[in-house]
Amino acid sequence: MSCDNGSARAVVILAVLLTAVSILAVFKGAVRINFFAMSEVEREILFYVRIPRVLLAGLVGSALAFSGVLFQYVMKNPLADSFTTGVSASSAMGAVIAIMLGLGVVTPLFALAGGITGLVAVYRIASVRGRVQPITMLLAGIVISTFSSATISFMKFLSDDAVSSIIFWLMGGFQSASIRKDAVLGIVILLSILILRRDYLSLDIICFDDTTAVSSGVSVEKLRRKAFFVAALLTAFSVGYAGIIGFVGLIIPHILRLLRFVRASELVPLSLLGGAFFMIMNDLIARTILAEGQELPVGIITSSIGGLFFLYLLIKRKKELYYFD
Predict the structure, then answer these.
(1) Whole-model pTM above 0.85?
(2) pLDDT single digits (tens) 92-108
(3) CATH architecture of 2-320
(4) Residue 218: DSSP 8-state
(5) How many C-beta atoms surround the C-beta of residue 307 within 10 A?
(6) For residues 166 and 96, is the Cβ–Cβ distance under 8 A?
């Protein structure tokens, strides 16, 4: 009961923080909006720029944090997320192909195809007799990321006209936010929650060895495939709409575990809220940290924070990298 009360309190706290930072992000920026005396220009900025952008930032943060939880459960590795497993890079490769072909409308579908391809490759490389080896998984993720980055660089070399837009898009950001994108990504997240809503206990069980999970009635391979597909789906649409934004799926779930929220029924809703809060806050910083209305790509901020956090985990918790905690 106390654990349930603790998670309920955490949900309330995160919901309050998310609401506060969302309101601040909507009204703060290069153009300050006075809610009580808005001009016509300010009203258009509010409804056609700020609100869609804040919504997209929150949804991408939720999607990436949720995918990180799934990767960590299925791979039994606290360092697994869409960035470290190479799924983000392979999704970006698919998206860049769509951009080069002038197929911007179906960019998320190309990103999904690239993400699933990269994920399958990482899983097959990291699997030894049906078990995923954590260190091998990280090395496989590096290989896939390197290959995807090389392919992206080659495509940039071939496409002089689109190279600047591709480079800026790859750094991550929400400049192209729209209500349509918000609606699509919101539906994807909702469907992902519904697909896995009855599998929370099974996700907890597969943290143990496969023999224990099977004896408990869990269809391990079926659950892994389902979770992998959902994680790739969430990552692909996030990358397709916002570019590469790394380490969100690593930072948020890990902080929650440090706070003793270890069950899937707790981690999933808290990660959704925590990821949204983290991303909106970072996007607000990206829009306001530079002078004269200049904007810093949000991917630079999250990668800087995530790189330091990743280094901390490697130094302080290196003995635990072979185990899921």
Answers:
(1) yes
(2) 899 888 888 877 778 88
(3) Orthogonal Bundle (1.10)
(4) -
(5) 12
(6) yes
